[in-house]
Predict the 3D structure of the following.
Amino acid sequence: LKLVSQGAEALVFVTEKHPYLPKDIKPAGLTNVNNFIVKYRPRKPYRHEQLDLQITKSRTAGEAKLLYKLDSLNIKAPKLIALDAINGIIWMEFLGFRLPNGNFSSLKNWLWFIEKKGESEAIGQLAKDVMRLVGYAIAELHLNEIVHGDLTSSNIVLVKESETEEKYSVALIDFGLSSYSNLVEDKAVDIYVLERALVSTHPQFSELYNEWLLEGYHSLYSEKKKINAWRDVERRLAAVRLRGRKRSMLG
Ligand code: AMP
């Protein structure tokens, strides 16, 4: 196991070992058949033991169920491989690849990587296409009454669609704080959290990125003829932004 991330809630490892398939049998239907993600929620010693078991079990199973649901809806997210809810362990598909600079292909790293390459029309177009895909992916969630709950540019991953061309798809990861909701407020806050994350990690271009993001988001609502639903989200997003601004003014 190789530790790749340590959050407040979980440890995330990469492993070459599939939970139950022997080495010479490659799993079907995964983009990466040699690496898998193990997400482990360790015990919290300060919590009451029975309560801790209950919380771990329900959060782990909740996340796994959601991954399964996303797969059945054909929404790009890590596929569920195995679940051990009582021990707080989920095995899932590894998504993403190494950028030429060696970094993992999170949206944040990828944007930093192309920003460094300098401004050109081709790079601008590529960034626009990717940000629109991001917006589209979030809209897919929202139109299925799922909110992510923790959208940042680290929880969005680029997946290679071609070995020869710069063609990518976009997947969302880390559904640990996700929930079912059809509330306009929850959807607007989901988008707002990502907007703020982009402002802090990519201050120079965030305005453009956010504009493209919303274009992509809007395009799926438009495709599905959900224009009124889009207007509701758009209006609420404006109100959430205003609230955010007032709060930061007051400190
Ligand atoms: P999480 O705790 O789920 O937010 O994951 C933290 C970090 O682990 C992410 O920012 C990624 O770098 C990595 N990670 C989590 N899940 C995956 C996955 N399915 N594929 C690749 N990397 C992942």
